[in-house]
Amino acid sequence: MPRKSILDARTQRLRFRRNLLAWFRRHGRDLPWRRTRDPYAVLVSEVMLQQTQVVRVTGYWTRFLECFPTLEHLAAASPQRVREAWDGLGYYRRAENLRRAAGEMVTHHGGEVPREPAVLRSLPGIGAYTAGAVASFAYELPEPAIDTNVARVLRRAFHPRLRRGAAGERKLWDTAKTLVPRAGNAAWTTNQALMELGALVCTARVMHCTICPVRGACRTGMNRRSTG
Ligand code: SF4
Predict the structure, then answer these.
(1) Residues 38-137, CATH architecture
(2) pTM across the whole model
(3) Are 160 and 207 in contact (CB under 8 A)?
(4) What is the pLDDT of residues 172-204, one digit of tens each?
(5) What ranges make up the beta strands (E) of 76-136?
């Protein structure tokens, strides 16, 4: 007989976050873009990570930043040169959007990557996730960032019966907002930890509930007998 969740929403959130952060401090990967707060470098990493796995992005990210070390370098580059630096990473539209976004930032934003998610979203190729990720990972603002991995974790942990669609998506963003602490550095860590859990433990293929650090605060995990 599955166990029913007896946690109220606030207790669940607090327990979930506490266990998640403790796990991330021990098991989070040392990825190169996690060592920087440079907004341009963070933006490049986030665009590359859209639809591409971490292991493939690492080398490309370093080489791309060597080719185009600043927004100005990227804005001044030809589409062909940017395309060549992206060659092999796939989804080449991302590269062209990034080059165009760099041009807009140089022309209209003083050569800086904007901080506000709403402004970031007005740039080519930058959606809600990337805008939240740049605000959090570069500027340490308390903004949520929901990519596919995070959406899956939030859905399983907090809303296992949530329907797909716009209303369901809004619910996930509301939940993420309540999870992300107001202090910027803690918000950075929480967003990174959510992504890491979705990439390593609560994956699309397998829910590793038996080793999951947040199982005691997860509505799906608590109701599963056992799993790999
Ligand atoms: S307990 Fe299971 S379903 Fe819940 S977050 Fe962990 S792996 Fe995912």
Answers:
(1) Orthogonal Bundle (1.10)
(2) 0.93
(3) no
(4) 999 999 999 999 899 999 999 999 999 999 999
(5) none
On the question of pLDDT at 1 being above 90, the answer is no
Is the pLDDT confidence value at 20 over 80? yes
Domain boundaries along the sequence of the chain: 9-29+144-223, 38-137
> How many angstroms is it from 221 CA to the middle of ligand 1?
5
Class of domain 9-29+144-223: mainly alpha
List pocket residues of ligand 1, CB cut-off 6 Å: 153, 156-157, 201-202, 207-209, 212, 214-215, 218, 220-221
With the most atoms of ligand 1 within 8 angstroms of its CB, the residue from 7, 20, 150, 156 to mutate is 156
What is the arithmetic mean of pLDDT over 84-110?
A: 97
Report pLDDT digits (tens) over 48-73. 999 899 999 999 999 999 999 999 99
Which residues are 61's β-sheet partners? none
Q: Which amino acid is at 86?
A: W
CB 135 within 8 A of CB 177: no
